[in-house]
Every structure is written in structure tokens, then in C-alpha cells.
Amino acid sequence: MNRISFGAKALTLAAFFSTMPIYSPNIALLQQYLNDDGAMGLFVMPLLASSALASAGIFLCAAKNTGRLKKPFALCSSIVPFLYSACMAGFVLIACRMILGLSPLIFMFGAAIGFCFPFLTIQWGKQLSSLDLRQALLLICATCGTAAAINWAFGFLRFEALAAAFIAMTVIGSFSPSVLPKLSIFRHDEKDEAAESKEAMDCEKDERRASLLIPRFASVLVPALVGLSVFAFHMGVSRALVLDSISTETIGNIIASLALAPLCFVKSKRPVSVLLFSGAAPIVATALLACMGIANDINLGDGVVSTGIYTFFCMIAQISLALGIAGTHAREFTASMIWSGFLALFSAFSILGISLGGFLSNEQPFMPQAITALYCAYLVVQSVRSLWKNDSTSCSDGSKTNDEREGFSSRCEKLASEFSLSPRETEIVAYLGRGHTCSYIAKTLVISESTVYTHARNIYRKIGIGSKEDLVQILTK
User: What is the pLDDT of residues 92-101, one digit of tens each?
Assistant: First the structure.
């Protein structure tokens, strides 16, 4: 992806992020004008419930890989940007008291927007499927930081200007996934994605059964699924303000974006997903636990602790979204399955968090801190377990010269051409030839280990060898 394409997607995605109603700071801006918690509840709960149900339905259809719903899905996807923009515009005008807000109308707006949201999310997921994990994380950092800045700037606008800006950015964010592919600078990405997607589907069609696909989906994306669920639950349970005007989510997103962006350029022998979820996240979790433990002893203010907790969860959410984009890029699972699964869990845990948060007082921080402590402990345990398994190998081409690396790559390409290996098989040959394990390859490419084993068997069969050692010998000659 070229810089112009990357920048255009980052800006339009930021417009989508800064106005999507499923993220609470965006709605909190409108609530200050609406000044009616009951009316806001009439909008939010139907939105989340509709989003959860629609996402769950799409997920199950995607897992079964049924082709009968392709035409209805395509029809809904073409209508959704219009319906979503119209309903969001209507609610914004009600919130800004520019039109009369009737309870049934608010309820219908919420339910309609919740139904539309999974389709828009999937369209965005397809647009970003050309990005690997490092590129995805960089895009998400840029998008979330920009969206947080926009969200903060919205707070200084009068209600007329806020309504106009909010509606304009909603239209940009909802129509961009369908408009961008028609521009010439994005067409080469679309062709590459189509070719790679066809190859991936053909190679893995024998494994695409719901009984096998869902466990594989969970095994590959479990860090992101757990991270987004905890983030959604925590947002529902607890909300706080800092500086009397900025929500902690806004501050947290900006700090998290600045902290994560440098990791996109860090070189590591381990897969990027392991570096993030088994390296960076547990380190931050340990530091946060330590701060929470000594907060009273050193007189840390509640605002500082709350900001630290939200920054941590914003980091987890951004890493989880990047992993979802990388999973779409790997094409073992469709964009429909990945993003509907993410959104179903996010919506369900948001409902659970909001329901529980209604029984808690803002002066009772026990529940948010308990959630944080449990999740931090989970991350540390998972990190220790990952290090104990030590899935990476001592093999590395970091000490090799450029000529040696280029020679190895040319031998891999020559072998792939000679034995008609697919693009994915060619990619895996390079990892196997360096001596990496299937587990390492799976985490690097964000696919399941069973899929790597399937590709490896096909490679050995085509070449006429029996093991990875034979392949290494061929490539080192």
C-alpha cells in the first residue's frame, strides 16, 4: 500500500471512529446537549442489542460458509451507508435539540444504527485487509489518536457546529469503504487481495466446516477477543472525567497511540503478535498493578489511576483491532467472520458492563480496579506460558549479509516456480527453510497451526520430500 492510499484510509477511518455510536465518548458529547439519561438509554441499549444480534447472525452464517446469503448481504451492504447516515443524522439533530425527540423515534434510530453497524465494520475490514500486523497497528494508532483529537475538539463546538461536523464525518466514514475501491490508487490493492483470497480459499476448502472453523478462529484470535471483551465491559462499568472536560478514554487513546506507534518499527526474533500480547502488554500490566498497589501510599489521585487504567485498556483495544486486521490479511477467516465475531462480543459485554455499572456508584472504584487486576494477571500468566513454550527457534538470518538473504529468497522462489507452489506455500517455504516451527509460522502469519500443517504437507508432497530437514537441505545447497 502506498503512502497516499495509507493516508486516505487513515483519515477516513478516523472519521468513522470519531462518530461511531458504539464507542461511548462519541455519544457522551451528545449527551451533554440532550441532558436526558433516559432518552440516551432508549438509544444506546437498542443499538447495542441490535448490533449484538445482527453480528451474531452474520458470524454464524460466515462460519457455516453458506453461499445462499451472499446476495442478501451484498444488498444490505449497499443500502446500509444511506440508512446509517440518515439515522445518525436524525439522532444528532434530536440530541442537539434541533428537532423534536420522541421516545419511539429514538428507539428506532438506535435499533437501525445497531443493525447497520456490523455491515459497515465488515466493509471497513475488507478495505484494510491488505495490511499486515505492523502496518495495521500503525494505521490503528494513527486513526485512534486522530479520532481522539477530533473527539476532544468537538467538545468546544456550539451545538449547531457540532451537529454539522458530526453528520459530515458520519457520512464520510460510512460511505468511504464503498467509494475508496473505485479510486485508481486503490485498485491494485483490490486485485492483489482478490488473487490471494482465491488462493487461500482453494487451499483450505477441505477444512471450512463450522465445527472446525470456530475452534480455529478462537485459537488464533483469542487474545483480541478477550481484550476487546474486557475493554467493552470496563467501559460500561466505569466512566470518569479528567480536567473537567475530557473523558479518560480520550486521554487514554492519545497516550496509547503514542506509546504503541514506535513498536511498529521494532525488530524482533519473535512474531509481532507475541511481542505485543506476550511482551509489551504484560510489561504495562505489571507496571499498572504496581501503581494500583501503591496508589494510596504515595497519594496518587483517582484521576491519575483512572487515566492509567483507561490508557492500558485503550492499548489492548488498539492491539486487538490490529490483530483483527492482520487476521483478515491472512485470509484463513473471512472479514465477515472476524469483524462480526469481534462486534458481537464487544456489544454483548458492553450491555453487561452498562447493566452492572448502573448498580455501582462513581465513588466505588472496586469493580473497575478488580477487572483491571484480573485481566493484568491473565496477561502475565499467558506471557509466562508463552515464554515457557518458547515457540521461536534459534534460527535467524539477522547475522547474514544482504547477498546471503537475497540468495536464500531467490532459491525459495526458484523452488516454488519449479514445483508450482501457491503464494501462501511459497511464503511458508521461506519460514520452514529457516528452520522455524509451525507454531512460530502460525503466530507470525496470524493463522492456525492446523492450517500451517496442511500447507506443509502439501509442500512436502509437491516437492517429493518427507520432512522439514529435507527442505532445509535443498534450500541450503
Answer: 988 888 887 7
Q: Which residue has the cell 534459534?
A: 394
Cα–Cα distance for residue pair 309/286, rounded to 1 Å: 12
Length, in residues, of the chain: 477
Average the pLDDT over 410-425 and give the result: 88
- The Cβ-side half-sphere exposure at 392, using a 13 Å CA radius, reads 15
- Reading phi first (left if > 0) and then psi (alpha if -120 to 50, else beta), residue 194 is in alpha
Q: Are 172 and 85 in contact (CB under 8 A)?
A: no
Q: Dig out the grid coordinates for 196 from the structure.
A: 490471494
Backbone phi and psi for residue 357, each to the nearest 5 degrees, phi listed first: -65, -25
> From CA 202, how far away is CA 205, in angstroms rounded?
5
Contacts of 388 (CB under 8 A, 6+ apart): none
Q: What is the number of other CB atoms lying within 10 angstroms of the CB of residue 25?
A: 22
C-alpha to C-alpha distances, 262 to 136, 251, 267, 292, nearest whole angstrom: 13, 18, 11, 26
Convert the pLDDT of each residue in 209-226 to its tens digit. Answer: 555 788 889 888 998 999
Question: In the chain, pLDDT over 70 holds for what percent of residues?
Answer: 80
Q: Are 347 and 48 in contact (CB under 8 A)?
A: yes
Would the pLDDT of 170 be above 80? yes
351 burial via Cβ count (<10 Å: 0-12, 13-18, 19+): buried
Question: Quick check: 234 and 374 in contact, CB under 8 A?
Answer: no
